[in-house]
Structure formats: structure tokens, C-alpha cells
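Suppose a colleague, Dr. K., hands you the sequence of a protein chain of 70 amino acids and asks what its three-dimensional shape might be. Before reaching for any lab equipment, you can write down a predicted structure in C-alpha cell form. Begin with the sequence itself:
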Amino acid sequence: MSESEQRQILEKLDIIIKLLAVDILKGKEAKDQILTLHRLDISPTDIASILGKTRNTVNVTLSQARRQHE
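The predicted structure, expressed as C-alpha cells, is then:
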């Protein structure tokens, strides 16, 4: 399999992951969406991409959640 074909497959998988994440998150508030994706081991950068937020917004939300649970 060529590098180009591998890249295309990865791009398609990325789209599928985002679509599944959107379906999982329906009806949840933004904070809960971020926390749900974080619990699924999705990186802050990817969470931001999926939700159309900035990485900073995601990191602040995660930081606030950690402080609340301390």
C-alpha cells in the first residue's frame, strides 16, 4: 500500500471518528462534550477539531474540571 493510500485511509478514519463523536455528544453541553471525549482518550487538539473549539478552550475546560475534582 502506498503512502498516499495510507494517508487517504487515515483521513477517512478521522472523518468517521468525528461523525461518531458528534453522535455520542448530541444533547450534551459543551463542557460535558469535552469531558466525554477526554475520557475516550482523545487529545485536546482533536477534541478542539471535532467540536470546532480552540485548543485553549478545551485545555481551560479540562483544567477547571480537574480543579473541581481535587
